[in-house]
Amino acid sequence: MALQLAIWGAWAPKLFPYMGMLGFSAGQQALVGSCWGIASVVGIFFSNHFADRHFAAERFLAASHLIGGLCMLGAAYSTAFMPFFAFYLAYSLVYVPTLSVTNTIAFANLKEGKDFGTVRAGGTVGWVMASWPFVFILGAHSGPEEVRSIFIVSGVISLVLAAYSLTLPHTPPKKGGQGDDIDALAWRRALGLLKKPFVAVLFFVTFIDSVVHNGYFVMADAFLTNRVGIAGNLSMVVLSLGQIAEVLTMLVLGTVLGRLGWRKTMIVGILGHAARFLAFSFLADSVAAIVAVQLLHGICYAFFFATVYIFVDEAFPKDVRSSAQGLFNLLILGVGNMVASSFFPNLVARLTGVDGVVDYRTLFLVPAGLATLGALVLAFAFHPPTAAPAGALEDA
């Protein structure tokens, strides 16, 4: 899990600033950003209906990370748009399915399902650790020749994981046949649940929050370096503080859910985004405040996204839970990512003056407003069938 998420964490914070250094237009950046959305849609059907039934999970993981690592190295040395886009799209198509395959391996081989949380925490540790080499690799004001190392580091980690995957426990493919029909029916039923008002409201708000959440990764690194004045080799470390806070926040999530219930916990989570972007808008001259506000990432993720996953597991019928989780995951990793990758680069371009200076105050008021809208919709329109997780009040 640590290696799996380190591959992603090595390039994610600086992808959009790097594309700006290469002179890619907002439209070209949006196309690159759409790769994960494309891969998420393809991955749902490829990993669920083909890979899971024809390949042992550990071998699929090894092959995917071998190809992905080579694609990352190709992207590192591609400065023209088309070859960079081709390598990044190919990487996305093989990497995104591995996010679910690693979970498959874990659940198939762990003796207790409850141990998954501890194992998955390794992913957060990997994301944080991936940022630290760049303190030494990058300079305070690195150009594209240096910043392309984000892909080199990611590619090397991917190749290491490809080799390590072959040492994982053998996890044979699922048997095909009737299960295909059952899966298709589960997907149709999961989509049909959107007719229920509380599911439709949660789906809409999750879309809003996923756009805001992914927009943070599009804009944050450039803001830290260009406006706040944090050195380019330290910005990724500053951003990683949010992942550290995420681990700590997850530890108290159960208690918070027991005390506040579904609606209030989600509202706190989405308002965390609003608070963070308002701080970006009005406190940009205070380095200490901007660094400290990164800790809100833990609240943003755990109190909303993690809570959504728990809610789906509690509130949806057992036979469609997996498909419903995949549906919300597609929204968060796919659709929300695509919209954010298109909307925010174009908004940045529109708010950039002739002197090249971005109006960050106005820029960040947009996601702050979207997050506030999502919180209001939750407050007045989200009426879940249960107030809190079963047994949560007793546990709390």
Number of DSSP E strands = 0
CATH class of the largest domain: Mainly Alpha
DSSP helical segment count: 18
Note poorly predicted spans: none
Broad structural category? mainly alpha
Give the proportion of residues in helices.
over 70%
SSE pattern: HHHHHHHHHHHHHHHHHH
The main β sheet shows up as: none
What gyration radius follows from the Cα positions, in whole Å?
21 Å
CATH arch. level architecture of the largest domain: Up-down Bundle
Q: Estimate nothing, just give the exact number of structural domains.
A: 2
Shape call:
globular
CATH topology call of the largest domain: Growth Hormone, Chain: A
Distance between the termini: 29 Å
CATH homologous superfamily identity of the largest domain: MFS general substrate transporter like domains
Strand content: under 5%
Mean pLDDT: 88
Pfam family, one: Nuc_H_symport
Keywords: Cell membrane, Membrane, Transmembrane, Transmembrane helix, Transport
Subcellular location: Cell membrane
Domain Major facilitator superfamily (MFS) profile: 195-396
Descriptive labels:
single chain; 396 residues; mainly alpha; Growth Hormone, Chain: A; 2 domains; globular; cell membrane; transmembrane helix; transport; MFS_dom; MFS transporter
